[in-house]
Write a structure and sequence with these properties.
heterodimer; A: mainly alpha; two-stranded antiparallel ribbon; about 0% strand; globular; B: about 325 residues; about 75% helix
Amino acid sequence: MTAHFPILQVIIPLLAAPLCLFIRIPRIVGIFAILVSATAFFISCSLLQEVVTGGTLSYQLGGWAAPWGIEYRIDKLNGYLLLLVSGISTIVLVAAQTSISKELPENRHTFFYTAYLLCLTGLLGILATADAFNLFVFLEISALSSYTLIAIGTDRRALTASYQYLVMGTIGATFIIIGVGLMYMMTGTLNMYDLAERLPAVYESKTVLSAFGFFIVGVCLKLALFPLHLWLPNAYAYAPSITTAFLAATSTKVAVYVLIRYIFSIFGIEFVDMSLPLGDIFLFLGLTGIFVASVAAIYQLNIKRLFAYSSVAQIGYIILGLAIETELGLTATLLHLFNHALMKAAIFLAIGAVVYRIGSAQLSHYAGLGKKMPWTMAAIVAGGLSLIGVPLTVGFVSKWYLVVALLDKGWWPVAVLVLISSLIAVIYVWRVVEWIYLTPPRIITDEIKEAPMSQLIPIWILVLANIYFGVDTRLTVGVSKLAAQSLFGVN
Amino acid sequence: MVTAIAIARMSDLFAVVMLSGIYSLLSASLFLDLDAVDVAFTEASVGAGISTLLFLATLKLVPRYEKKSRYKPTLALGVVIATGALLIYGTLDMPHFGEADAPVHQHVAPRYLNDSMNEVGIPNVVTSVLASYRGYDTLGETLVVFTAGIGVLSLLMVSRRTKEKALQKVPADMQNQIILRVVAKMMLPLILIFALYVQFHGDYGPGGGFQAGVIFAAGIILYTMLFGLSLTQKVIKTEVVERLTAFGVLLYAGVGIACMLLGGNFLDYNVLRHDPVHGQHLGILLVELGVGITVAAVMVTLFFKFTWRTVKHKYNQ
């Protein structure tokens, strides 16, 4: 049975999604979804353990050997991310049970869970596959289902936001498929590792160069790299809270994974260096992204939008790690992928809990909530501190590694800029703190209570994870280092 | 090319829909010219056939003419030109069209062409690549169709009240078109039988689940357009169709699971029967059926949903 784990990971949510339509009873569908996601999580735990101790796992779909058939290949990099995505998804689903019942009309619950599981399938499929075209197919599944998840709420503005995302996302996907097509034309293969072997022979050709160009732009659209991030703030702000928590924590991370996989495992760092000044481009866009988005975050009136802009800024840090092009830099990127997912899942779930109680995400409605909902607010603050990078939180760990990597490369001005940018994060987090604790409540209502346990528990699991992984970094740093080593080892 | 420019310039949406149908048909002929019969068939049935129908259904809900916009999309034009330039730049080093030693013909393809008869045992190589060698991709694509269906289902909710009202008696718009009705009645069985032929003949000639599903759905949609929703719903219940969208995916993935239980890898049809080639036949037949069911059901659901909307707008005023 364990031999089938690489595929079961993806197939279980895949089968579960259509099954939801047969169950149809919202409560049961919800619990069913948690069970499915938890199963995927346990499988990914066992996979990661196996990969770290035993080495890469390969699974031939349909029994056809690659490159004729499609291959699933789990190594340290995607094992680590599979764990992250399935874990976050499970925790978010637990909170979803109550949150959804308030934010969506009853008759949409089943569809919500179906789309959620489809999105999970898509994300896990992207991570697990070793086939360039198969990756595209699962990218489409995750993309289409996230458009649904965003638009499914009762907020009419979500429809426009989702449509915007749909247009941008489709352009991104088209660029990616053009890239894959051009590569297939030059090598005759779609398997990633076969591509890596056959590409060096045609490195010089203009076709491969343009394939690479299309590919990079397409993925950067998906991961919302500044200035291709325009779809993100609205999509996050108007989607149902659970959708925001899930997508913010996983979807852009998976897109970053795709970028890393293509750069390191397929094209190879040498090709990237000789074809495009990608390091410089990423350095520039990453830094501008951090500053522009952080400053934009300060001026937001909607708390979801505020943290959405902060997400764009965090993607800047992630990309900055890639721009360094060293093993340490890649480690910092991988660490921040994981850590940022923990922070944003905690923050957006906590916001979801507030929306559950007061039905609004306007910052001004948060006045005085520090006394009414102490635990939820404490979670937002803890997440905020982590975003700034205060010691004992995960944010500190990833910023530390990023700065060390920058100094190691000799880019100390950039390191200084990174530290300055943290100060901007202090400003926007402080604005939230000010509203929550220091502003007297405008509407005096005694009805506002602390969030229900079913939401507090998942939120605090994430907050504690934020602190735990900020202190005990064996898992995150250990695996990130191993993954970074293996990616540089390949070349 | 001319059609594409015309589509972009026109503001009469009805004409745009018709032209895009023509555009698809022209692309289909182009694919046919490139000897990609299966692709051409899909383009013709999906692009020219069903999407035109769905566009028309949408058009009933929105005004016919596009709004004039004052916005000058200079930036967008720049991006498009840059993209086009990069595409052309990319073609400079491409292997020449039809060159025998191009990498595409050298690496993976020879095994598909030479050995698929022994390994999979069906004459249409496209089907054996699609449903067996790369069967998992096809499962993914079926799931994409299903996901799209879920998206529409969840966004276009129909209240029970509207449904009841509609079921009582909604006359079709084309009630009085006697010629159309008579011709359609004669055509319908032929369309459905042709769909089934395409479905089960995919192993031997161009065709398969995607095309068959679409043709089947087109038949039902044609009927609904001419005879009204209430008559169609007597035969085809919305709830059943909604569940069928899921059933197709389950059938496909279920075959994969069965293969696993019998000791093979996921979607390894060889283990389904004692003789691997028979196993392949059975597996491909079943998964193609799954594809067909999901595709047809999703298309019909989409059309129904749009029609319900039209009904709602008409009677709730």
